[in-house]
Amino acid sequence: MLLFLDTADMREIKKYSKLIDGVTTTPTIIKRDGMSSEAFMTKMHADFPELEVHIEALAEDAHKTELLVKEFMTKPWYRPDKVVFKIPISLDGILATKNLKSADASIRVNLHMAFSAAQSSLALRAKPDYISPLIGRYADRVTGLHGHEMRAPGNDPGFDLLKDILVSSALEANTTHILASSLRTVHDFVTAVVLGAGAATLPPAVLGEALGHPLTTEGVGQFWQDLLAV
Asked: pTM here?
């Protein structure tokens, strides 16, 4: 599984840079973390050249999306092997992706904001590098719960959505990664792994929590007590 950090916080990126494959962002995340897109991409290129970065290419229609991507490709921070353009799923988004990839096979695209298997199946026709279903946000809307409120294990509409998208993707026999997004808890992350998502993106807090366990802390504490008692 490819593992991404869903943040624009440079301190968190530095902390986990050797563990992750890249970073995913949205304009909302970049604004929240006190950056501009240009400043963020410039710093990522300089400080973390080994990490893949997903950056939004948001425009009014297919033609303007293509122009925006081509503008981004002229930037000093652009590298085709490390920059992925995030484009919302829509007719314009799919058409822009098809046109961009037909013109230049090195262009990499994440068709995101997927909330149905139908959207995902149609998006696959553009052969994007990633499709991103927003698991938590979808479950919030269906259940009426919010954020970290507990959804029923084994009966979660967000993961029903992910399962449907993974099945439809497998039937297409394509190379597109299904990137599980909007994961709010460690349970969400583990479920995405078990279901077979090829990639996942996590907030820093969830990744930090996933690395720990009370029994690990307890065991290591006992080891230190015994070591120092010798």
From this structure: 0.91
